[in-house]
Amino acid sequence: LTLKFPDLATDDEGNEGFWTLIYNQGFEVRIKGRKYFAFSAYEKNGKNVTSHCGKTMPGWTHDVMDRNWACFQGQKVTPVPPKHHQMPEQHSVELLQQLKFRTNYDFIDQINKKQSLWKATAYRDMEDMTLEDLVRRAGGRKSKIIGIPKPAPVSEEVKRIADKLPEIFDWRTTGFVSPVRNQGGCGSCYAFSAMGMNEARWRLRTNNTEQPVFSPQDIVECSEYSQGCDGGFPYLIGGKYAEDFGIVDEKCNPYKGKDGKCSTDKSCPRQYSYNYQYIGGFYGGCNEELMKINLVKNGPLSVSFEVYNDFFHYKGGVYVHTGLQEKFNPFEITNHAVLLVGYGVDAATGVKFWTVKNSWGTQWGEDGYFRIRRGTDECSIESIAVQSFPLY
């Protein structure tokens, strides 16, 4: 196979197909009636990581009807020397599991004094969490993305379509968005984001005659495409897992908020999705205008963004990262998956924003939701949006 920028795959027989990177973790190819997916190969020894960019881990392949499964392994025809690098300095899991979060009221005051777009507050439930719980709450260690692409250029055609959209839009007004839930101290935000997208689009597809709540625990326990409570990515869950294996109702595997053996009731029917994709068609093809178009046309989107420790204290308003860092509670930047449900313009300030459903419970933020500045790729939220469609 030959993979050409940005998304063209060809084989030795002259067949053409599609390919995309999957975050910075691997790639997927669709060609000649088959799909191929694999993670890139690497070795880790303590802080030392060796990336074998020229080959893959053992991956999965099947035909487009999800039949005739097989394993494969890929290697570049032209050898690529391995790259050696060290992981950034991180606090150990063991240390963060022992340290309890402590509310730093001075830090909250600093946030509120530095800017006026949003308000910060203290949350008592965070006092019951360890610092490792907070890392997981914000995405988990395995969801960190290095080198997130910038938003793609906007074509004149896309701009023309986007300009005709309403100035304010919110799927919550239709009743198609399922209730806010709480992921707890498990890094399962990717599963809640992916299930939330499928729930909303299933409601939209059936005109609210069916209102499913799907099981994130099935993903945490049973998916080989993610890392349980250590994190994962919506493209592989709301998209590929939902298409390859299907998703189940919450009652088939109620949420426990912890890792475990796959315990999903095997008698439960599974619902499937199809045509999963990055907004823009491939990794790196996303931008604000395409997100608005697909949001309005097709329904809520799974999106990801970088979480900094000021975000934990968000209470209301339009979030913009302050640049402030908290000394009492050590924290590494993670990539958090959430559900995009609308957009608008703040009446008081004129600042454009996205309306986003979080999975930290209704006591957090604006009844479980938050608004974040739109049009500036705030915390990389306009870079890697994902969608899929219910097979009904």
From TrEMBL:
Keyword Hydrolase: yes
Domain of life: Eukaryota
Cofactor(s) listed: chloride
Transmembrane segments: none
Entry-linked Gene3D superfamilies: Cathepsin C, exclusion domain (2.40.128.80), Cysteine proteinases (3.90.70.10)
MF (Gene Ontology): cysteine-type peptidase activity; dipeptidyl-peptidase activity
SUPFAM superfamilies named among the record's database cross-references: Cysteine proteinases, Dipeptidyl peptidase I (cathepsin C), exclusion domain
Keywords: Chloride, Disulfide bond, Hydrolase, Protease, Thiol protease
Domain Peptidase C1A papain C-terminal: 165-389
GO BP annotations listed: proteolysis
Annotated catalysed reactions: Release of an N-terminal dipeptide, Xaa-Yaa-|-Zaa-, except when Xaa is Arg or Lys, or Yaa or Zaa is Pro
EC primary class: hydrolase
EC number: 3.4.14.1
Function description: Thiol protease. Has dipeptidylpeptidase activity. Active against a broad range of dipeptide substrates composed of both polar and hydrophobic amino acids. Proline cannot occupy the P1 position and arginine cannot occupy the P2 position of the substrate. Can act as both an exopeptidase and endopeptidase. Activates serine proteases such as elastase, cathepsin G and granzymes A and B.
Entry similarity comment: Belongs to the peptidase C1 family.
Subunit structure: Tetramer of heterotrimers consisting of exclusion domain, heavy- and light chains.
Protein's recorded name: Dipeptidyl peptidase 1
Source organism of the structure: Magallana gigas (Pacific oyster)
